[in-house]
Write a structure and sequence with these properties.
Strand content of chain B: 25-35%
Number of domains of chain A: 2
Shape of chain B: globular
Helix content of chain A: 55-70%
CATH superfamily of chain B: P-loop containing nucleotide triphosphate hydrolases
CATH class of chain B: Alpha Beta
Largest interface: A-B, 28 and 29 residues
Radius of gyration of chain A: 33 Å
Largest sheet of chain A: 6 strands, mixed, barrel
Number of domains of chain B: 1
Distance between the termini of chain B: 13 Å
Distance between the termini of chain A: 35 Å
CATH topology of chain B: Rossmann fold
Number of strands of chain A: 9
Structural class of chain B: alpha/beta
CATH architecture of chain B: 3-Layer(aba) Sandwich
Strand order of the largest sheet of chain B: 6-7-8-3-9-10
Order of helices and strands of chain A: HHEHEEHHEHEEEHEHEHHHHH
Oligomer: heterodimer
Helix content of chain B: 25-40%
Shape of chain A: elongated
Strand order of the largest sheet of chain A: 2-3-7-4-6-5
Number of helices of chain B: 7
Order of helices and strands of chain B: EEEHEEHEHHHEHEHEE
Largest sheet of chain B: 6 strands, mixed
Strand content of chain A: 15-25%
């Protein structure tokens, strides 16, 4: 049995050599189809991941709140009163709105002179609470850390740097443990931000500013009011409900009408992420549609080549039958041929797609291009593509071959 | 020539072709017996049914009615695998236009029926070279059909037909596409094969050839018009 199989493989291999051009074209069709679909989906997956990451760069599911001013008369008070958040509001929120998971206030001071050795730059300094780390995805590079509870409680003069600030001050040199000055006051660098994708911001990208403990900030600059609040809600809680609670809480404390929407300004990042996700779903459906169409076109191409090939070889099939070939010999040969073509074409297609993805990962891409820099091969899609094209090629080869092997050999021999 | 029994026995063979609404009776009742070792020329005008008869004898086509016994076995009883075996082992078919695989060498073409028979490598090698030597083409084994003349191609086809030592060689106008010299060589080859004991049945238009053979079957309008045995051997 094995020996006979080897004999047939020999025969098939011989015909492979004879049909190099046709084989190559069929393989090319499958390879091309696989590449088109695999890369299309790879970029789609990569883009989605990068967009999610970019959204998460600002903070995953966070809400940023700014205080505004009243526009309505309330409890005898006139409109036009400015509302200010105070540091104690943080504890008030923690106490009164249990639906909130993490909360931090943020003090901001622009154009603070930062010096290291002979280098001097003016940057934004932000004073925050330790919760800010999780809220705003501020993860430190190896060897460093973000502001922690002890820094806050002990009002330590420690500073965490955005990547660009670190580069401007230190270049390639290690910054951790170095002493820099902020308006002449020495601070120890405790961490440098991990490079991150960030698609939105409210006071410039995170890589461009520096962070110190809120307590140290107050001590240094004496700001009595917070510039804004940042919070996240607990799992399953709707941010809109929490907004209402915030209006109620601060309306009570600062005496404004909870219906006066100008008193508090919310930027709901979670809501925005939801919209982005919906837009992306649309893009994805479109990509799948295009992918499906491409698959169909590639399939028709493969089917056409296989079908024509077998029609052309009908006379040859007749000759083989006259020489004593069994029906199974003929059908088996075309089956092996179709499978081999599909395997080689599919493997080449996947290999090439993986290679293209790798190259994109290695390319230095900045700005919006960065969103395209992480194409990821979606293996189920790649394998389904190869399987579908193989199946189409197989069926387009199998049925005519079976028919050719079943017809009267005299008719097959007469076929021109 | 050996004469040791009937090899082919046809009884009232008819063949009707239906093409759309038109039906054509290609064979109208052929009864024919061919013994082992005979050298038979089948002659007749175009469309007389010669090729149909050859195809039925070669198990490439089935009769509409009548019985066909090959080596005392009823062909109608054979299943598809048995039929493939018969074509492979008992019959060596030679076509007017050679039907060689264009991409394969002479060696590989002759190898084909041996592969279908599942013969081992060493045996195949020896047999192929033996068959090619018999037709005088041992030195052209590695040539492809495009590198061979018409006569050489037909000789490769004959070597291929000989590969499995068939009981009978059937040739459908084997010299039809050849010049007279090449055709003459092919005919001599058939005569030699017959002299070595093989049965040969050939369709030919060449009466000169036919006259030299020991039996001439003339077909006309799907019937045997005459069946002449020279030397009274029928």
């Amino acid at each position: 049995m094995f020996y006979k199989l080897m004999l047939f493989l020999k025969l098939i291999f011989r015909e492979f050599k004879a049909q190099k051009l046709r084989m190559s074209l069929t393989i090319l069709a499958i390879t091309w189809g696989t590449i088109s679909i695999t890369l299309l989906m790879a970029f789609s997956v990569g883009l989605e991941k990068q967009m999610m990451k970019a959204t998460a760069g600002l903070g995953k599911g966070i809400v940023i709140v700014w205080s505004g001013q009243t526009t309505k008369v309330y409890q005898g008070l006139p409109p036009g009163r400015k509302i200010w958040f105070r540091p104690e509001d943080i504890d008030l929120i923690r106490e009164r709105i249990p639906d909130i998971d993490l909360v931090s206030g943020e003090y901001l001071r622009w154009d603070v002179t930062i010096e290291y050795g002979k280098k001097q730059i003016d940057k934004l300094v932000s004073g925050v609470y330790p919760e800010f780390k999780e809220l705003r995805s501020h993860y430190a590079q190896m060897g460093g850390r973000f502001i922690n509870q002890i820094d806050y409680e002990q009002k330590k003069r420690v500073i965490y740097l955005g990547t660009r600030v670190k580069e401007e001050l230190f270049g390639d040199q290690d910054a951790i443990g170095e002493i820099i000055t902020l308006n002449g006051i020495p601070f120890t660098v405790i961490g440098v931000m991990v490079e991150k994708l960030q698609d939105s911001n409210y006071h410039g990208p995170d890589k461009d500013y520096t962070v110190i403990p809120a307590s140290t900030f107050v001590l240094m600059f004496g700001d009595p009011y917070l510039d804004n609040l940042v919070y996240s809600v607990k799992e399953g809680v709707k941010t809109k409900d929490v907004e209402k609670q915030m209006f109620a809480l601060f309306g009570g404390k600062y005496r404004f009408d909870p219906e006066d929407s100008h008193c508090l300004w919310f930027w709901d990042v979670a809501e925005q992420a939801e919209i982005t996700a919906k837009v992306f779903l649309g893009i994805k459906i479109f990509m799948w549609f295009i992918g499906g169409m491409t698959l169909l076109i590639a399939g028709v191409g493969v089917a056409n080549i296989m079908y024509v090939a077998i029609r052309e070889r009908t006379k040859e099939i007749g000759t083989k039958i006259a020489l004593g070939a069994r029906k199974s010999h003929i059908v088996f040969q075309f089956m092996i041929e179709a499978l081999a073509i599909a395997f080689v074409g599919g493997a080449l297609g996947i290999l090439f797609s993986v290679l293209v993805c790798r190259i994109f990962w290695m390319l230095p891409m900045e700005g919006e291009l960065e969103l395209l820099s992480r194409p990821t091969v979606n293996w189920p899609v790649a394998l389904i593509t190869v399987a579908t094209l193989s199946a189409i090629g197989f069926l387009a080869g199998f049925f005519p071959a079976r028919k050719a092997a079943s017809i009267n050999p005299v008719e097959a021999l007469r076929y021109e | 020539m050996n004469d040791n029994g009937t090899l082919i026995k046809l009884q009232d063979i008819t063949k009707k072709y239906i093409s759309g609404k038109v039906s054509v009776m290609a064979l109208k009742g052929i009864t024919l017996e061919i013994k082992r070792g005979e050298l038979v020329a089948v002659i007749g005008p175009s469309g007389s049914g010669k090729s149909t008869l050859m195809n039925i004898i070669g198990c490439l086509d089935t009769p509409t009615s009548g019985s066909y016994h090959l080596d005392n076995e009823s062909v109608a009883e054979f299943g598809i695998h048995q039929l493939a075996g018969v074509r492979n082992q008992k019959i060596g078919f030679i076509f007017q236009n050679f039907n060689l695989l264009a991409y394969a060498t002479a060696y590989e073409n002759v190898e084909l029926p041996l592969i279908f028979a599942g013969k081992p490598t060493a045996y195949r090698k020896e047999k192929i070279m033996d068959c090619l030597a018999q037709v005088g083409l041992a030195d052209r084994a590695e040539h492809k059909p495009t590198e061979l003349s018409g006569g050489e191609m037909q000789r490769v086809a004959i070597a291929r037909a000989l590969a499995n030592d068939p009981d009978i060689i059937l040739a459908d106008e084997p010299t039809g596409n050849l010049d007279s010299q090449s055709g003459g060589e092919i005919i001599k080859l058939f005569e030699r094969l017959n002299a070595e004991g093989r049965s040969v049945v050939t369709i030919t238009h060449d009466m000169g050839i036919a006259r030299r053979w020991n039996r001439i079957v003339k077909i006309k309008d799907g019937l045997i018009e005459s069946d002449v045995v020279i030397g009274g051997k029928k």
